[in-house]
Design a protein that fits this description.
By secondary structure, this protein is an alpha+beta fold. About 25% of the residues lie in helices and about 35% in strands. It folds into two domains: about 130 residues, no CATH class; about 180 residues, Rossmann fold (3-Layer(aba) Sandwich). It has eight helices and 18 strands.
């Protein structure tokens, strides 16, 4: 579990440190102060060895990269990840956690010919007997191609220090070497995104196998008290979650409203992230303010049950107050509010513990 996190030269952050992290962390702040960017940075850091994740973070904001073209006169697909688009600097992310200790992730775009000439890739051959493009025994230097783009990920922890490259050339994307699986699972729930019905059903199925599906039902009953059970139904060979609400008919989960889908996605991903991290952008979306205290109570209980650390953002004062009261009335108080604020050209984090947040709420101070 993260205890502190530092990010430099990423998006809007020149240098940001956020400390005193808890089991459940709520990130507040004005528009364009970096709340979503902080979740992105944490997502990349959770991925540890995988530079390909840098191409996914824009999708969390609704931006899909349809085509990658490595023309010499264009920038790279990673330019807008760098603070003020300055690709001469290095993005650095440092996390202190309770298991591995200090883990450092650095991202840099390689441009120096003296570095590029030492990078070689296999020449793509024909198709194998399964129709998959295979690599030949021959290799070529990336310095022979003026249009190649190279991102280097440098990873370091107390037991491992290794570089991973992602290269874009006329034949597509290449990874060298192929990165291993991340050290722990992490899920990102975007503000206006939902997981597919198939993925939703697969997440539920894994909980059923472990006999842990009741956690999902309890949370969804906060939004729909009549919900009696959940089950998977195949429609045109595609699995989808259905619920029984006492009408005599099973109802597809999406027909029960945005709040139900939002809650289902949240708890299903927490349940499948055991020992890992859950990142949620604008957590109050689709949820009525009256159920927010019970939702936060449930998030705390489920996060502890599956040993998951939660990071969420919000614009809502009601959401902040509901979280504070839920954890105050249902100990332990393993919750922190972190407010991002801009001071000149710098963004800093202000952390509120239980007593400070209670005093700020009573004094009606701005904590959003």
């Amino acid at each position: 579990m993260y205890r502190s996190f530092k990010v430099s030269n990423y998006r809007c952050f020149d240098d940001l440190t956020i400390a005193e992290l808890e089991r459940v962390n709520l990130i507040a702040g004005m528009n364009n102060v970096g709340k979503t960017a902080l979740l992105e940075a944490l997502f990349l850091h959770c991925g540890a060895y995988n530079p390909e994740l840098t191409l996914r973070v824009d999708a969390f904001r609704g931006i899909e990269i349809k085509r990658l073209e490595p023309e010499p006169w264009k920038g790279t697909p990673w330019d807008w990840l760098f603070h003020q688009f300055d690709t001469s600097k290095v993005i650095e992310m440092v996390g202190e956690d309770t298991i591995t200790g200090r883990r450092v992730l650095r991202l840099e775009i390689l441009k120096d010919p003296s570095e590029l000439k030492h990078i070689e890739l296999p020449v793509r051959g024909g198709l194998d007997d399964k129709g998959i493009l295979k690599d030949s025994d021959r290799r070529y230097s990336v310095s022979t191609s003026e249009s190649v783009k190279v991102l280097r990920l440098k990873y370091e922890d107390p037991q491992l220090k290794k570089d991973y490259l992602m290269l874009l050339d006329q034949k597509g994307l290449h990874m060298s070497p192929i990165p291993p699986a991340p050290p722990f699972p992490a899920f990102f729930q975007g503000a206006r995104m939902r997981i597919s019905p198939k993925e939703e059903a697969e997440h539920f199925g894994r909980l059923v196998v472990r006999k842990e599906q009741d956690a999902v039902l309890r949370v969804l009953q906060l939004s729909e008290p009549k919900l009696e059970r959940l089950t998977t139904v195949f429609v045109a060979d595609v699995p989808m979650l259905y619920g029984e609400v006492g009408t005599g008919h099973l109802i597809p989960l999406p027909l029960m409203g945005e709040g139900m889908v939002r809650l289902a996605d949240l708890v299903l991903q927490i349940g499948n992230a055991r020992g890992g991290v859950m990142l949620v952008d604008e957590i109050e979306n689709g949820l009525h303010h009256s159920i927010l205290p019970r939702v936060w109570q449930a998030i705390g209980e489920v996060a502890r049950q599956f040993d998951v650390q939660v990071f969420a953002t919000t614009h809502s004062l009601e959401c902040i107050i509901a979280a504070h009261r839920a954890f105050s009335e249902n100990p332990p108080y393993d919750f922190r509010l972190h407010r991002l604020e801009r001071v000149g050209e710098t963004i800093r984090a202000v952390t509120y513990d239980r007593e400070t947040l209670q005093a700020a709420i009573e004094a009606e101070l701005e904590v959003r």
